[in-house]
Specification:
Serine Threonine Protein Phosphatase 5, Tetratricopeptide repeat, single chain, 60% helix, mainly alpha
């Protein structure tokens, strides 16, 4: 049995407590002579496994089992804003308030910038009165605001609105375990409409990079292209535009890797970074792949984790979806 998995491409766009995603690799950063950037530690296999197990336990509500594993994962080199945030939630729910605040500060240092989620997350209710929490919240608010700075706010807002509609359509299909034909038709209709609109925008304005629409909305534009599978020619046209945006610092190398693979797969060629998976006899595997032995080298070069971690994250999402069924 072979079933294509629809990729919910806004991975890690919105952090949620105990999200269970794969550990984020370190993003490239530029160092200055005045403030050199210390290299990120390399995660050990044991630490990576501990992080995955911690997320699984936290999703089940076993925070007492998850928190020691989060500690081990962090000490073993698994670093990132989501693992730190999830550990903060686990510690807060266990009443380990001071430790929770330390984890939240780590999340902020790693780039956590979802103020809307932070402010309403009930998991952190135990630590909001602690000295130091308010300052961390303000840092997150400031970081989030930077994601929306744009020369064209109207275009930014339209892109964000369309991305939300895209995700709602996909969530509805996923909730049906991909069986609801009406939800599938709705998703395709949304994709076709977004593609038509974005083609017009790009024809008139060029690629909407972060300077024009802000980082979040530029990601939204990429997402709409990633889901424009009904118009592969358009995806192919955008690819060199995104390459140029990445080269000038207005795009993500990870997003470029995803679109590169999407275009290759949609044109019948082997993919390069193994971002496109399918289910074969109940197991997640990458679609046809060029030079499989070096895939993890290519993934690391653009800031992606290993293929093994990526597949494991999908397996965890599948397991969680199965557990949530009535």
């Amino acid at each position: 049995m072979r079933r294509i998995i629809v990729l919910l491409a806004a991975l890690n766009l919105v952090a949620c407590a105990h999200g269970g995603g794969a550990p984020e690799p370190a993003a490239p950063e530029s160092a200055t002579a005045a403030a050199p950037v210390a290299p990120k530690p390399v995660a050990t296999p044991e630490a990576t496994k501990a992080a995955a197990e911690a997320d699984g336990l936290a999703r089940k509500g076993d925070n007492a089992g998850a928190l020691p594993l989060y500690r081990s994962a962090w000490m073993g080199g698994v670093r990132g804003k989501y693992i730190a945030y999830n550990a903060a939630c686990a510690a807060s729910l266990l009443g380990e308030r001071e430790e929770a605040l330390v984890w939240l500060e780590r999340a902020v240092e790693e780039g956590y910038d979802n103020a809307k989620h932070l402010q309403k997350d009930p998991d952190l209710g135990n630590i909001r009165s602690l000295p130091g929490y308010a300052a961390l919240e303000q840092r997150v608010i400031a970081a989030e605001a930077k994601q929306y700075e744009a020369a064209d706010p109207a275009l930014r807002d339209e892109l964000l609105k369309r991305m939300e509609e895209d995700q709602q359509a996909r969530n509805a299909l996923i909730a049906s375990n991909f069986k609801d034909e009406a939800a599938k038709a709705r998703m395709m209709e949304v994709d076709a409409r977004n593609t038509r609109w974005l083609k017009g925008v790009i024809a008139e304005r060029g690629w909407p990079g972060s300077a024009l629409v802000g980082t979040r909305a530029s990601f939204a534009a990429w997402l709409l292209v990633q889901h424009a599978d009904q118009d592969v020619a358009f995806q192919s046209e955008v690819l060199p535009m995104l390459e140029a945006a990445v080269a000038r610092g207005e795009g993500s190398a990870k997003d470029l890797a995803y679109l590169t693979d999407r275009v290759l797969v949609n044109t019948g060629k082997p993919q390069r970074y193994a971002t496109q998976l399918e289910e074969v006899n109940g197991r997640m595997v990458p679609k046809a792949l060029e030079d499989p032995e070096k895939v993890n080298e290519r993934r690391a070069a653009v800031g992606l984790g290993t293929l093994e971690e990526y597949i494991a994250s999908f397996e965890r999402m599948k397991a969680a979806a199965t557990q949530q069924k009535p």
